[in-house]
Predict the 3D structure of the following.
Amino acid sequence: MSVRSLCLAILTFGDATGYEIRKESTEGRFSYFDDASYGSIYPALARLEADGKVTVREEQQHGKPARKVYSITEAGRDEFLASLCEPQAPDTFKSPFLLIAMYASDLGPDVIRRALDRRKQQILAELGKMQEFGYDDPRTGERWINEYGIACMKLTLAYLEEHGDDLINIAKGADKAAPVAAE
Amino acid sequence: MSVRSLCLAILTFGDATGYEIRKESTEGRFSYFDDASYGSIYPALARLEADGKVTVREEQQHGKPARKVYSITEAGRDEFLASLCEPQAPDTFKSPFLLIAMYASDLGPDVIRRALDRRKQQILAELGKMQEFGYDDPRTGERWINEYGIACMKLTLAYLEEHGDDLINIAKGADKAAPVAAE
DNA sequence: GGACACATGTAATCGGTTACATGATTAC
DNA sequence: GTAATCATGTAACCGATTACATGTGTCC
């Protein structure tokens, strides 16, 4: 998902400034899809305006620089919805944790224990964030994906809780120089 | 995970050519971590050799260009294992499917049904690939992550099977209530 | 006769991040 | 006083992809 699409996606939920879009993409609901930095958002917004996909209005403020509030246009909405209809890229899961786990026997139990704990805490943190969001608007797809996310997180957490020790044992076994402890 | 690390990771499992590394990263066990193209693998391998992290030997072949078979060195193994020990980046899940689901009420039931089916098929395909891999070497961390992956895929598939209709209903409901944007 | 697997590599390009530049306001 | 939040934007850089360039053997 490009920054361009990300901006359009966020703007379908209401007007926003570049600053707010970035926040939403790194901390808010859209952090499940992509992160983006100012260095990519501001140029993307400028191009979107030149293309007629968004409009801007400036709101003067005392002291602070003027806010540039962007609104999506009909053409912008069309572009975005159309992009959702064309063949979707496959979902991907990138897991530094799994990579570490793969080399458990080379890394030893301490590293593995730490990696496992970190992963669990990450899941807990994400779970907390998801459960905070409230949904009072009619776009209930938003609620559905939230519930989906929560369910998945809970299931993986349970799996980790149940099978984490097995992984630690793999790391331990190799630590003792006995290549394989029969299974 | 950079292409450099990816190359080292794959080479810890045995010697390989650039061609094979690419295949492993797009189709094999390592496809869960990262993809990489020739345009990034070959330069990475050249740098790795210049840095003394791998060695090369050329194997002449009849007709085909000579294979350049790379082997990881002790220094290479050290660099890789050390990189696994330093603070891990959080796991991320990028889901074009979830994005489509989020806008269910704007897209209508047909698009959603299609997206749902595609996602299920993707999971099925990945599941099949995972179940094919056999593990006879002592590095049992590999088996652990395989079982983890299979468990997660099965759980999410079950969730989609159970709650997919809810999402279609959301898309349907909106279809009746408010007309969809131009299509 | 055509598509595909094998096999290596470079050049142009692109999409993005990081660091830089600026500056007021508010909370600790 | 100092850190964080609000607020915009640019320039340098980087990592990677895409397309290009080349060529044989094999299967259908």
Remarks:
- Strands of chain A lie at 54-59, 67-72, 92-94.
